[in-house]
Amino acid sequence: MSTLPLNSGTSIPQIGYGTYATEDTATMVAEALGLGYRHLDTAQMYGNEAGVGEGVRRSGVDRSEVFITTKLDNDVHRHDDALESFDRSLRALGTDYVDLFLIHWPLPTRYGGDFVSTWRTMLEIAESGRAKAVGVSNFEPEHVEALVRETGVVPAVNQIEVHPYFANDAVRSCCREHGIVVEAWSPLGRGDEFDDPTVREVADQLDASPAQVILRWHLQRGDVIIPKSSTRERMRENFDLHSFQLSDEQMSSITALDRGADGRRGAHPDTFTG
Ligand code: NAD
Q: Which one is catalytic: 17, 46, 97, 165?
């Protein structure tokens, strides 16, 4: 299993299992761990942390072998609310620490635009040892720069929207400059890019599925991926990414699919209010 080092001194498995909108989270998580996944992505917002914890216990895999990420919800950025919500997350997950805790959205138009104070609360949680690493999600370069400038502490991770139609390279290069690991959310573009002729052509050349081509493209760009599937066969497929690789030419052809701002599927972090 390939892992990437984090600035916290810990490391993160490059392939994770995304749990957003999973119907029976505990069953799917146990299944994912049975297939070899060792990284689970959840969030307070998903309302499924208890299912994630239950899935880990059911799987029989030791907690210490699983990398668990959760995220701070949008309504609890204020100091005491954030600390209480983090306690609730640990209780729901049935664990006394998470491997990574992220600010889910920067919300520059809420809380007086003061996401730096939210970051200070995250640092307090990291200091307590109950989050092995802390980071952010959906932070644009100016948000990242503000954290670094105001606190001198660089997030371990920035989890952002990335898929072939939305390469999000401006945010990725800012992260690279600061040694922040990029995690791609909706790495498969929620399935909408499988019929792209270029993706299909590369898939045929490699005798791989379109999903595998896209996920392998992310891995070769050095990002972490957290694809979501509720089908055992697809979960297996999304984890089986080391028996083939894209040539430089194939990488370039997928990278050329970027549609810039038009490729974005989710909300824009500058305007999203939660
Ligand atoms: P995704 O790109 O992982 O696509 C998921 C969909 O693709 C599935 O519902 C399924 O229909 C299809 N799919 C998956 N594997 C397939 C395969 N092998 N063959 C055919 N179809 C397949 O989209 P996502 O769920 O939006 O993102 C993944 C994870 O990212 C989420 O579960 C969540 O953990 C995280 N996420 C984070 C944020 C954030 O703001 N931080 C936002 C969205 C998602």
A: 46
